[in-house]
Amino acid sequence: MAGIAALLTTGLGGTAAAEPPGIPDGATAKTLLGELSVAPDGPLDGYDRDKFPHWIDQDGSCNTREAVLKRDGKDVQTGSDCYPTSGSWFSPYDGATWTQPSDVDIDHVVPLADAWRTGAAKWTQEQRQAYANDLTDPQLIAVTDNVNQEKGDKSPDQWKPPTTGYWCTYASMWVAVKHKFKLTVNDAEKAALTEMLGKC
């Protein structure tokens, strides 16, 4: 928890790190992609977002969403409840900047439903909770809310960030998460990721 506490208290007067931790470079991401198991997606039978308890308390009254808003924002000030009272958030998916936290969603880079279809259906509730609140890998990022809603649970063969200059980073994050959590990719998804990593 010390790491979370440090995360939440840094950057009070300045610029917080504006991206998730652990993003591999393009060459590393290509290697990781080659190590992923390729398999058809499983069914969504039994899926429910509640099986991935998220926005849990991370440190005192601060939950995971608030931690990411603090980390990804600029000049973020918070109240005693950890909710931002001011700051700005740049969404790399679409290049927009927002000053109201209500305009920002916290995206699960690899969506919860996609994780369910590619391995997480077999996990314990505790494992799914850890996945949904992961602050140590490039799995959570603050982005424009309607862009995140447009993405939904789509994989990269079905949806890519509108900003093509971010494709390399997005694909690298996606691959890193799938590799860390031993999730599979399907053929179309792997082809899309290969194309996106070609922009690195």
| Number of helices, where a helix is a run of at least 4 consecutive DSSP H or I residues | 8
Number of strands: 7
Structural class: alpha+beta
**Strand-residue fraction?**
15-25%
Low-confidence stretches: 1-17
Helix percentage: 25-40%
Distance between the termini: 34 Å
Largest sheet: 3 strands, antiparallel
Major sheet: arrangement of strands: 3-4-5
Describe the global form: globular
Could you give the order of the helices and strands? HHEEHEEEEHHEHHH
Give the C-alpha Rg. Answer: 16 Å
Average predicted confidence as pLDDT? 91
How do the helices and strands line up, and which of them pair or pack?
Elements: H1 2-9, H2 26-35, E1 57-59, E2 62-63, H3 64-72, E3 73-78, E4 84-91, E5 96-98, E6 104-108, H4 112-117, H5 125-132, E7 140-144, H6 145-151, H7 167-180, H8 187-197
Antiparallel strand pairs: 1-2, 3-4, 4-5, 6-7
